[in-house]
Each structure stands twice: as structure tokens, then as C-alpha cells.
Amino acid sequence: MNHTHHIIGLSGGKDSTATLLLALDRLTKDCIQPVFVDTGNEHPATYNYLSYLESYFSIQITRLKPDFTEEIAAKRRFIALDRRTGRDKHGVKLRWSNRRKREALAELKPSGSPFLDLCLLKGMFPSNRSRFCTDFLKTRVFVSFVDEMAQSHKKVIIWQGIRRDESDKRKNAKLFERVGPGFYYFRPLIHWSEKDVFQCIADHGLNPNPLYQSLGRVGCAPCIYSNKKDLRGLFNSDDGPEILQKMRGWEARVSRASKTGQAVFFQGKELAGAHLGEVHPLVFFQRHRIDAIQHWASKSTRFVGEDWQDFEKESSCSSEWGLCE
């Protein structure tokens, strides 16, 4: 059994990159294990950046990927055998209609993208009100991996790229924290500013992820918390047309896998002037499809009144584990 094993949660973003640099400064490579959890919705530049880090430091990054094959098979059985009667608290029929069954069963198959598979399974995309993406796509996979490592090492230390000035959720984060026998969190950046992070990367002769030239943060492409600035930069990039086409296809597929037959990526926003349920669903979904979002993001002013007021700030997604940035 080995002694202390250091696991660095790596996203390809600035904070996790700086955390990796500090680990490499202080430790030998044989006791460091950078870990990247692939959602299947990452920007192509992020995959390239991870390869850049591997080549620059002559290290190997462990890549993990969630698998929903069993869950999708179970969902298919449930839909095929659904014989429920009555309505839910919103008055919606509980039972899947025969048409919805046929379309959902035709779509509910592993796609190769964990993000899309999860949305097909849920019949919807995550939103600020139902943010299941980080939990299922990042946290559970990472925690399971860490648990396995803890069985073969006397001590496991998780290095997290978390800063206190990022959000209220992180303002009381501890530098070092014991979470169980032989299991610890270490957060070397908690007192750092964003400027400190970029300076650290530059001091090591490294370039940050090139996405920072047009985006405020690195994560899913797009992320449900993307603001207008980020979306404009994303859709105007060289990969923008391909990403837009990808999202059109995903919205169509998840819609067919949904019991309602309607699903849009940015369902938590209010471009229709109201929350879902306050206007006719056809109006809401038509105004929130990815092409309408792209049109909104291309405008220099707000789409309507106070739409997305809270999302004009920098993206606010902040995983407890620091796995998304």
C-alpha cells in the first residue's frame, strides 16, 4: 500500500491549472494524479489544452467519463410498460401517450456524449432551478474515483482550485480540511485573486486556456449559466457554427425523448417574458430554442426588459469540488 496520494481536480480552466502548477512545484510527479471528468459537452479547445498540459509537463491526465447505459435501459423499460392513470399536481397526464412512447423509445439510446445521455434520460436539460448536470456528470464520477483511490492509499489529499472571492458559497472555504480517516481537502488558492491565478500561469511560462480570450470562464460549451458575453463569444468563435448545430440536434433529440415533446437548453431563462407555465408552452419553447438564444446574444442590448438580468454578470456555476473551472 502506497502512502500519500495527491489528486488534482482538473477542468482545463485557470484555477485548476494554477492548482496543478503548485502541486508540480511542491511534489514529485509520481505521487500526483490530475483527473479530468469529461461531460461530453466540453469545448474542443479544452480537450486541446489538456493535451497541451500533458505534453508541456510530460504528465498523464486521468480522464473519467460517466456512463448512463444501465439507467437508459431502465428508463426504456419504464416507458414501455407505463400504464398509469390520472394526472399530476399540475394537471398533466401521468401516462406517456403512445406517440410520445414511440418517439422516446426511438431516441433513448446511448449517444456517446454523457451530457446528452443524461438529458435524454431526464427528458429535459438542466437549468438554474434543476441543476442536475454537475452532480451526475462531474461530482458522482469524481467521488467514486476518489473512493477507489482511498482503498489503496493510506492518505489521499484532494487539491481543489477554489478561491474565496469567487462566490458567497466559497467565501468561508478552508485551506486544509479533514473529511475522514486519511482523506483531506487542500485548497491552495483560497486567498488568491483572479489576477494572481493568471500571474501564476504566466510565471510558469504557460499560456492559459485560449478560451479566456473571448469567454469569462471555462466549462461546458455552452454552460446553462453562460451570460450574454460568453454566448456571443462562443457563437462567434471558429467552432461557433458547429456548436450551434450540435445544440439544434440535441434540442430536437431531447424533445423527442420528453413526455411533453418539448425541450430547450436554456429553459431557465425568460426570453418569452415569463416563466414556463405563465405563457403557453408553444410560445415559451419557440422563443427559447437555441437559435433564438443566439439571436439574443448577438444583440448589443437586452432582448426584452429585464430578461436575464441575473445572468449578465459572470457565470455563477460553482461546484463544491471545483470541477467546472
Number of strands: 6
Q: Hey, roughly how much beta strand do the residues contain?
A: 5-15%
Radius of gyration: 21 Å
- If helices are DSSP runs of H or I spanning 4 or more residues, what is the number of helices? 11
Largest sheet: 6 strands, mixed
Strand order in space, largest sheet: 3-2-1-4-6-5
Structure description:
The structure is a single chain. By secondary structure, this protein is α/β, with parallel strands linked by helices. The chain contains 11 helices and 6 strands. A 6-stranded mixed β-sheet has the order 3-2-1-4-6-5, sandwiched between helices. A hairpin with a 2-residue loop joins strand 5 (176-180) and strand 6 (183-186). Helix 1 packs across helix 7. The longest helix is centred in the middle third of the chain and has 20 residues, at 133-152. The model is unreliable at 303-315 (pLDDT under 50).
List descriptors.
11 helices; alpha/beta; 325 residues; 6-stranded mixed beta sheet
Short description:
The protein has 325 residues and is α/β, with parallel strands linked by helices. The chain has helices at residues 14-26, 44-57, 69-80, 98-107, 114-122, 133-152, 194-203, 228-236, 240-257, 281-288, 290-298, and strands at 2-9, 32-37, 62-64, 153-159, 176-180, 183-186. A 6-stranded mixed β-sheet has the order 3-2-1-4-6-5, sandwiched between helices.
